[in-house]
Amino acid sequence: MNVKLIDIPKILKREGNIAVLENGVVPFDIKRVYYLYDIPSTSKRGGHAHKKLNQILIAISGSFDVVLKDGKNQQVITMNKPDKGLLISNNIWRELENFSSGAVCLVLASEVYDEDDYIRNYKSFIAYIKNK
Ligand code: T46
User: Fold this and answer.
1) Residue 7 Cα, ligand 1 centroid: separation in angstroms?
2) According to a count of CB atoms within 10 Å of the terminal CB, is the N or C end of the chain lower?
């Protein structure tokens, strides 16, 4: 499946750590940054795929599960470390669930927001990738 866990380079110090994302680590030009926060533990986010957009998700704080589907395979990745980024390429269905208290999901995106890039219906997603 076209997803990858990325180790975010970090500087560890007794006084606290720094994780740095810069060119070379992020495999696309970042056009947008957003974050999900104050998420009720019962919330399910995502439930869509993107035609063009590539993204990196980071659990800056707390944890959550990401369910990923490419039409053939499914996997669940638990994000719970601020020095790990989950690269999700286009044409992958994602669902985010099991948010811990205080979880924050930071997202680096390859495109600005465009609702036309979303496939928000699973059957339409399957039809879309079959026709690719
Ligand atoms: C994704 C997951 C991880 C905007 O107007 N601009 C934005 O940049 C975004 C991200 C959203 N919106 C609007 C669109 C909807 O009316 O905010 C509303 C909620 O968005 P959505 O239901 O898509 O939120 P999530 O958390 O289900 O999905 C978001 C991203 O949209 C998506 O690309 O992968 O976070």
Assistant:
1) 25
2) C
